[in-house]
Write a structure and sequence with these properties.
Number of domains: 1
Structural class: alpha+beta
Mean pLDDT: 87
Largest sheet: 7 strands, mixed
C-alpha cells in the first residue's frame, strides 16, 4: 500500500512539473545575448531584468534583478574593438515569444544620462562613427502584464578605433 501511494505521489508531482513547463511561454531565465563581430562572439552583460509569471493565483514564480546604471556597469566591462560603421549581429540564445528588441546608446550627461536610439533591423546594428568608447543597451521584451512579465536589459561596450 505504501509503495502504491509513493508511486501515485510521484506521478502527480511529475504531471504538475511537466504541466508547468508546457504551459509557460518562456524558459526559467532570460536569454543569453551575444554580439557577433568579425567571426567572433562576445558576451553582453545582463543588467536589469524581470522574468516572472503568475502560475497560481497570488503566487508569482520567477526572479528579477535591479542593477547599477548602464554607464557604471560599462566602466567595469571589457570593450569590443570595432571600426566606424562596422556591422554587429545581436544573437539571443532563444527568440520564442520575444516581442520587441530596442537598442540605444547611453551617454553620461553631467549627473544624469541621455539615451540615443540606435537603428536595429534584422538583428543587426552598426558601430558608431565617433572614435572612443560607447555603452550600448539592448532591451529584450517578451511581455509585460499582470500575469506575466519578461524583459531583460543587456549592456555592450564598444570601442571604436
Amino acid at each position: 500500500m505504501k509503495k502504491k501511494l509513493t508511486i501515485v505521489i510521484l506521478i502527480i508531482f511529475s504531471i504538475l512539473y511537466i504541466g508547468d513547463k508546457i504551459t509557460s511561454n518562456y524558459p526559467d531565465n532570460p536569454p543569453k545575448l551575444k554580439v557577433k563581430y568579425n567571426g567572433n562572439e562576445f558576451k553582453a552583460e545582463l543588467n536589469e531584468y524581470i522574468w516572472q509569471e503568475v502560475k497560481i493565483p497570488g503566487q508569482t514564480i520567477g526572479n528579477s534583478n535591479l542593477s547599477v546604471s548602464e554607464i557604471e556597469m560599462a566602466q567595469d566591462m571589457d570593450s569590443i574593438d570595432v571600426s566606424s560603421n562596422d556591422v554587429l549581429e545581436i544573437k539571443l540564445s532563444y527568440y520564442k515569444n520575444i516581442s520587441k528588441i530596442d537598442v540605444f546608446e547611453v551617454i553620461k550627461d553631467g549627473e544624469d544620462r541621455k539615451t540615443i536610439p540606435v537603428e536595429f533591423s534584422g538583428y543587426v546594428i552598426k558601430a558608431p562613427i565617433d572614435k572612443g568608447e560607447h555603452a550600448y543597451v539592448v532591451d529584450v521584451i517578451g511581455d509585460l502584464s499582470v500575469q506575466s512579465s519578461h524583459s531583460a536589459r543587456y549592456v555592450i561596450k564598444l570601442n571604436v578605433i
